[in-house]
Amino acid sequence: MSACHVEHLLQPGDQAPNFVLDAISREGKIALDDFRGHSPLLIGLFRGLHCPFCRRHVAAMAQLNPTLHEKGIESLVVVNTPVERARLYFRYQPIANLLAASDPERGLHRAFGLPVLEFTHNKTDWPYKVGMDVVMAMRIERPGELPEPMAPPKAGDLLNEKDQYEMTEADRQVSLTGHMQLVGHFLLDREGVVRWSFTEVEDEGRYVCQALNPEELLSAASQIAH
Predict the structure, then answer these.
(1) Name one GO molecular function term (predicted).
(2) Is residue 156 part of a domain?
């Protein structure tokens, strides 16, 4: 892939880097230049499909596609899962009108300034290190799927069990032992400038494994529509 690596999280007003990634939902490549000058773009940068929270956030993002399309905004999902494994997953778990790309090297995450978080015993230096005492104090709420608010590791195990998701060697290659890639959404205008974002980096981890607020996204989308 082609990307200029930056050392800070991209913020509204920053120019997004160009990229070229393997398409999952069709053959060929996908590049930012495919959209630049033509339409605004919502990019969702996720962990691999082995992450149960990311699988749900991908599906939730796809549900917003019709509303975004009405505003002239395209959407692109990027996952760290290798392309063949991702294509196999979506063959059995299809999502209508999903445009997706594979980035197993996490180059685009780095280019957008999303760091890899290291889990430690009790030392926290957000967003680069987090103590397991902090992680276990976090709470994920998914009414209807989880019996109660619970810490991310336990919630993830329950959701994977519910989904009957089976880890493959391709999944293990991109799951970072003792670490976690932070993720987020970036709304770009038609010139590729960031106009809105929602990431796990902000607020000392408050948004880790949490879904975006659709109303906030659609409000931002209305500002750059058409």
Answers:
(1) antioxidant activity
(2) no
